[in-house]
Amino acid sequence: xxxxxxxxxxxxxxxxxxxxxxxxxxxxxxxxxxxxxxxxxxxxxxxxxxxxxxxxxxxxxxxxxxxxxxxxxxxxxxxxxxxxxxxxxxxxxxxxxxxxxxxxxxxxxxxxxxxxx
Length: 117
Description:
It is built from two helices and seven strands; from the N terminus they run ββαββββαβ.
């Protein structure tokens, strides 16, 4: 949870806000099939339903009042992965910063699988 203070009081922002904004930003980018999570038991990558996409996002709170985001995705077959990832980074930074006022220091993207269109 992030706590912001101003002259009017305190604002607490829960982790779910960051994961929801991140998942929404990433899945709306061209070439992204969805968020993924790797099963602990069998190591298989699973595509997450929209309501669970936050499980594919990990948020780290930095000492300088910024956050770092790690996300796991599945992409469409044949897309240019570096271009898709740059698009995601830009969109995630914009949506999270615009929605919360918190700066995003890093966005690390893990492409776990490529799926047929």
